[in-house]
Predict the structure of Glucosamine--fructose-6-phosphate aminotransferase.
Amino acid sequence: MHYKMYDEMMEQPRSLKDTMEMEKSHMKEISEKFQEFDKIYLVGCGSSLSTCFSSKDAMNIVSNRDLEVFTGYEFFYHKKLREKNAGVILTSQSGETADTLAALRRAQDEGMYTVSIINESKSTMMQESDDVVLTRCGRETAILGTKTYMTQLMCLYQTLFTLEDSSEAKNVLKDLEKIPNITQDLLKNSEEDNKTLAQQYADYDIFYCMGSGPNYGLSYKLAMTMFMEGALKHACPLYSGEFRHGLIERVEKNIPVIFLDADYPGDEFTRKSIEFSRKIGAKNIIYKMQDYTDINPLLAPFVLVVPLEWFIYYLAHYNNEDPGRTRHIGKVRY
C-alpha cells in the first residue's frame, strides 16, 4: 500500500523550507505594501479557504486590523465593495480555481491591489495578479492538499503577522521558523498511533470536527476536504462555541467527534463539549497541541494537521480508497 499522498506528505518539510527561503524577503515587501490599506480581504476555496479562516482568527487574537474572509464566488456575487483603500490576498493551489479567479478580476475592476498565493508559476492567477507569492511545492496531485496547504498557511501567517509590531506577533513569527523541523518530526512520530486509530474508526461514516480560534479553520479543512474528499466520509465542521447550538442535540452514543485543543481561551468550550460528549458515550477523538510540541499555540493548525493527515490517509486505505483520488470534483488537475 503506497499512495501518491504519502510522497506529498513527506515533501512538506522541504516545501516549507524552500518556500520560506525563496519568498521571505518578498513577503516582507508585500507586508509593507499592505500596511497602507484600511481593509484586507482574504479569499479562497476549499483547503485554501481554510487557511484564510485560520490566519484571520489567529490575527484577531493579536491585532485589531480589519480582516475579512470570503469564498471566491461569495466575494464575486454578494460583496458590495466600497473601499478605495483595500488589498486582497487570494489563495489557490493551482492558480486556476474558477471562483477565486473571478474574485481576483472583480477586485481589480474595483481598483483593489491583489496578491495571489499559488503553487503554479504558469497559471492564470500568476499572470493576472498585481503580485504573487509562489509556494515551492512542486506538483501536487492528491485532492485534499498537504504540502500546498502547509506552505500556503505559512505564507499567510508570514505576510499578515509581519504587519504587526507587537511582541505577540514577533513570537509567532519566531516560532513559525520552527515549523519545517517540527513537521519532519511529526511525520515520523505520529504515523503509528493514527494508523491504529484509523483502523478503529474505519467503519464509521459520520464525523464531527470542532475547534476554536485558528483551529476552526483546520476543523473546516478536516471536514470539507480531508474527510469528504480524501476519506469519502460525511463530516461537519463547527466552532467550539457553537456546540450547544445544534450539535449538542445530535451528538449521541458512539458518534465520533474530533476535538482540536490548543488551550485557547475559547477552548474552555472545547473542554466543556468534550466532557458532555464523554458523559453520553460519544466517541471522543482529542488532538491536543500540547501533546505534540511546545510552541506558540496560534500555530496549532500547522502542528495538528500532520497527525490528522495520517488518520485520514489510513482511514481511506482501510476503506479501500485512494486518499488522493477524485470522483466528481471538477477541480483543475493541472
In short: The beta strands are 39-44, 67-71, 86-91, 113-118, 131-134, 206-211, 234-239, 256-261, 283-288. The chain has two domains: 5-178, 197-319. The CA atoms of residues 35 and 80 lie 23 Å apart. The longest strand covers residues 39-44.
